[in-house]
Amino acid sequence: MAEPQSSRTTSGGDGRLRNALGGVLCAFSLLLIGVLAFSIRLFSVIKYESVIHEFDPYFNYRVTQFLSKNGIYEFWNWFDDRTWYPLGRVIGGTVYPGLTLTAGTIWWLLNSLNIPLSVETVCVFTAPIFSANASWATYLLTKETKGSGAGLMAAAILAMVPSYISRSVAGSYDNEAVAIFALVFTFYLYVKTLNTGSLFYATLNALSYFYMVCSWGGYTFIINLIPMHVLLCIVTGRYSSRLYIAYAPLIVLGTLLAALVPVVGFNAVMTSEHFASFLVFLILHVVALVYYIKGLLTPRLFKVAMTFVVTVGLALCFAVAAILIALVASSPTKGWSGRSLSLLDPTYASKYIPIIASVSEHQPPTWPSYFMDINVLAFLVPAGIISCFLPLSDASSFLVLYLVTSVYFSGVMVRLMLVLAPAVCILSGIALSEAFGVLTRSMKFQRPTSDDGSSTAGDGSPNIPANSKAVSKEKSSKKNRKKGKDSEGSSSVDPRTEEKLLVLPCGPSAVGIMLLIILSGFYVVHCVWAAAEAYSAPSIVLTSRSHDGLHVFDDFREAYGWLRHNTDADDKVASWWDYGYQTTAMANRTVIVDNNTWNNTHIATIGTAMASPEKAAWEILNSLDVKYVLVVFGGVIGYSSDDINKFLWMVRIGGGVFPHIKESDYLRDGNYRVDAHGTPTMLNSLMYKLCYYRFVETDGKGFDRVRRYEIGKKHFKLTHFEEVFTTHHWMVRIYKLKPQKNRVRGKLKLKSSSKTSSMRKTSGKKSPWQ
Amino acid sequence: MPRATSDAKLLIQSLTKAYAATPTNLKIIDLYVICAVATALMQVAYMGLVGSFPFNSFLSGVLSCIGTAVLAVCLRIQVNKDNKEFKDLPPERAFADFILCNLVLHLVIMNFLG
Question: Fewer Cβ in 10 A, N or C end of chain B?
């Protein structure tokens, strides 16, 4: 009891020095954590090259190129006519500008400082930089809740967690790279406002929420989670004026700022995703008024007021609620957008929106993917939840709510495991820090050189590891003061727990510390392995190891390069929508459909064209002014994400709009086959013909390495298309539409030459293309 | 019924008496809040009359009134001497935060007004 106070008064300088040292250590650890977060994401740059990955990042890259070349006004008003031909796409109004503006600003800043980095380099490295920022934001958020020891632990864990690495490697230039940073930072500012009640932080919170709205469509998670938390606080009796200051300005300012972003626009006030925030806004005002009146009146009069108000108020509430419900229920989707509905009801997408259901990252995750993505943290999280309840504060209840909701959403879509990642990192950081604190404390108190058990030293000793120094210092000094002040066990359970924990003998606690360190070691090893092997593939370049060394398959860029150099600038290229972004970015040609998938009918048109026989497909593609068709085929090398495997989705999506395409026509007894047992419709479809044209020449038998059987129709000629390019490993095949012939034989019925024409009709082929 | 009316009268009397005891600066803030909310209601009534065509103008007008009312309530909470949580917050700092937040709000409003 005497020591902590004495350390404050007599050796004040000593305590200040120790605090300063702790601060320096903390800052240095944060710097190292930032470097760790940056460098663990560089595996793909080292193993392959500094290239943009996957599909969506190419669109973002193309937009950033446009922004850097033409400036922000052109970007804001850009109408892109090189995609979704002939519809075009309004880029300014349909893109979330946060990522491109961030990267564009970094590029402009560096260039104005005469550091000539290219736009591609800035784009590739934006994600690792912002993941370092995200781990610092995690440190801040956890520090607000549980102290800086837990903060450092959580930051270190987030820097490495595989689920976040998967979407933010160097080269993965996608919205989530900056959005997770914005998410955690917004939560940090919200918790800070809740803890301090300062309007300044409330303003910053609204601005950070604006940055989040600019960056990602997942901002609806924030605008529904915070009202849920406010409601929880009100219901559990934790209403305070700080809650009002934290919530009300955020809603007003936040709604306005969200309406500023063109993608959101008036949806900020008209869609169901935002209604929860307005409802809780009203409820909060009612509760605030009630508390104010309670402060003004005596208890008896307050009861009278309550009975009076309740009867009138409830009637009014029911009337308003009935009107609102009638309004909302009149729209078929109850005001929710398709994507939000597919999150709330996991079966919605497969019934109504096949495009959303067909994307592989929208499928529910399997159990092993949880262990792959968050590893050891999966069982540290329950310990963190318990630790949040001792004691329960506004901030820790927020963290628990965040975890529970994000666990539900991650179970719906594998892509949303990314939102779960910060929650599990924070809670397991709290758990680990508490565990370390308890074990080291019990070790310290069992040392023979320490004084009698009751007067426990408050300040840290050199034995305690650095990352729990701050928390054990604060916690033990606080608890000792409490123990000294009240004689017996106080209302809080901590001194009693501490007495119980003090009894932990020295040996087991040393073993415990060793085991925890080994557990963290396993986690680190797994994270580095996942980053190096599983999540660093750029998808545009494939590699495989065989007995004769490393093979590199660079077919995609070969094909786009060929298109870029051997076709006219205005030629239109048709392919399945997966490759649209890459084609516009790398080949610089106009495409018909791309990954934005905003127009289902247009995609269904292409799907129908791929599923029809050659003549019908030619008609459809010609009506869209298409000159070249691109298909991806993996049968020669065994690449399994090719168009033949995606073909059934084309049939389903096409069949959803054009009823003459029936999925059952392409299946033999419910099985999808392209061998000799395949249905005639399947073997005559454009996709089959374009993929397997001349395939039998590769090995003489036509053995497809992906499907693992010989194909059905081996020798056939193409009548309406001609092959112009096939890449080195036959992965991408490009075909040109044959132009119509000038003179059409056999179609004119002239009386004079009827005999000759009828003779020609019976003798030769009728097709005008030969 | 007469008990209810007498209760109601007693209630209103005690409410007005307790409210009259609040300091003047808080009463001024309350007046400001009531003015702002009244302006917002007038705008909504006007929208009901002439339709909501430039919807962004309507939205920014109403939300600017509601926003400044909310911020004034926050200021009142922070400046109120009966509030234990904010006793070491100087009222000048509270007012400065209020000004800052209003600046941001009105910048956004100006942009959105169209």
Answer: N
